[in-house]
C-alpha cells in the first residue's frame, strides 16, 4: 500500500492544486497540477506536483503518457500501483470523451470530419482495427461499428457483416476506416482489394461506399482525396 508522506494540506499556498481549482477553476491548472490531484500525494522529498512534472517531462506529452502501462508508470520513483491506476484510468476517460465529442460532427462534409471522429478511437492503437461509419441520405452518421480487430500488420473484414449492419441501421452510405499502427499511410494491395470488394457489393445493394480512410496518430489518407477510389 502506498504511504502518503506529503499530503496536499501540507503544501505551500502556491502548491495546492485542489484549492487552486476550487478558487480559480480547472482551466488555470497546468497538466502537472491536474495529475497531482489524481495521485493525491508525493513522497517525503517530493511534492505531487513535482512528481507529476517529472512524469510528464519523461513521457513528453499527455498523448505519450496515455500510452504508458501501469507497470511502466510504476517505474517512476514515488508511483505505486494505486497512483499508476489513477493516471491510466483518467487518461482513458479523456480519450473516450474525445471520441464522444467527435460525434458532434455528425454530418460528414469532408475526410477531415471522418478523421476527427475516428482518430481518438483508433489513431493511437498498437494493433489494427477496421471500422465502418454508417450514414443516412443527408450524410449524417447513424452509427459506427468495429468490424474486426487484428495484429500490427492487418485485419480480416467480413463483407457480409458490413452490409448486414448497413441494412440493420437503414444506412444508404458508409465510410470505411482502419488504422496503420506503423504510421505508414500508404494503402497496401490488401487495403485496395477489400475497398473494391466492398464498393462492388454496395452497388448491388444500393448502399454507396463513400470513402476509405487510413488513420494514424496524427495524419490520414483518404482514398477519395487521393483520387484512387
Key features?
229 residues, alpha+beta, 9 helices, 43% helix, 15% strand, elongated
The biggest beta sheet reads:
5 strands, mixed
Which range does the strand content fall in?
Answer: 5-15%
N-to-C SSE string, H for helix and E for strand: HHHHHHHEEHEHEE
Strand order of the largest sheet: 2-1-3-4-5
Describe the structure in your own words.
The chain is of the alpha+beta class. Helix content is 43%, strand content 15%. Strands 2-1-3-4-5 form a 5-stranded mixed beta sheet, with helices on both faces. A hairpin with a 5-residue loop joins strand 1 and strand 2. The model has no long low-confidence stretch (mean pLDDT 86).
Report a brief summary of the structure.
The protein is α+β, with helices and mostly antiparallel strands.
Furnish the topology, listing elements before pairings.
Elements: H1 17-24, H2 31-39, H3 48-59, H4 62-65, H5 70-73, H6 81-102, H7 111-122, E1 129-135, E2 141-149, H8 159-169, E3 173-179, H9 189-205, E4 208-215, E5 220-222
Parallel strand pairs: 3-4
Antiparallel strand pairs: 1-2, 1-3, 4-5
Helix pairs in contact: 2-3, 6-7
